[in-house]
Amino acid sequence: MPKRKSETRRQNMQSIIPLLARAAGVSLFFLAAIFTSSQAADYPSRPIKIVVAGPPGGGTDFLARLLADKLMKQFGNSVIVENRAGASGLIGTKYVKQAAPDGYTLIMGHTGTHAILPLIHTERTYDPIKDFTPISLIATTPDFLVVPANSPIKNFADLVARAKEKPGVLTYGTPGIGQPQHVLALRVTMQAGIKLMHVPYNGSSPAITDLLGGRLTSMFVTSAAIMPFIKSGQVRALAISTETRSKLLPNVPTLEEAGLKGLYQVDWLGLFGPAHMPAATVKTLSTAVMKVMQGAAIRHQISESYMDPEGTTPQKLTTLQADDVAKFKQIVEETGLKIN
């Protein structure tokens, strides 16, 4: 019996619909690609935000504001810094992870936020590599172990001796749980065979205030945050975390010279965006950052803050970050550092 015309038309439509859907999908794909390309070509067309996952006044904040000022002049467009402190950097970092990958929300990340913190949280908060786009390494900085200038502790040997006399009584401050300085402190105390009480802060500034006020025995801190107080004679540096002594403070021994063989650690700060940023936008940003970082003025300002200026390709930051994630994964396993 011959098919009815209506049934034939219905079957024809059923066969055509998938073709139309595929065609529409392809068209939408190309439209999206054209739109994304157009956006990247116009970048930046509105204000850029650099997030600092810590409070104002620290080394990360200083570097972000310095870079923002130079990029604003480079782009002729507003570049603002927004502090989103809390949870040792998790709040600000997760905020950027969830932002649109259009290049208008960035973060001044560092060793803590983009290598250590995700490794020590029992609940996986973010992947430091897969969830972000590296743009440029901005600076590197060593850490110092310091005590107040009026402390009876004159060197690292004194600290070890007193800590062994009173296990768990002497204190050390850090910018927060899981920060590079906290991990460094764990490595130092484990290797030295001593117990110190950890007092974590929300950033370096409040910890330095308590150190100067005599409420902390010691502190592990970045050079950028503590060097002015070393220079002014308010604190005494017992050791530096680099492989060799600093030219700025040649009388301060390295941790290895203090008796901790093979123990050194240098922190870094880098500019990141959310994952899946357009390649053209990344190139525009990284090129601008590298150009800005070649300026004599900004390099002098960073050096005066006791950090080493960089300004690299995304690839160099990618490699450095991957190496540090692998390194700190092993260190975290050795120290047993975990937080909920």
UniProtKB/TrEMBL annotation:
Taxonomy, superkingdom: Bacteria
Listed Pfam families: TctC
InterPro entries: BUG (IPR005064), Bug_dom1 (IPR042100)
CDD domains reported in the protein's UniProt record: PBP2_Bug_TTT
Family membership: Belongs to the UPF0065 (bug) family.
Name of the protein in its database record: ABC transporter substrate-binding protein
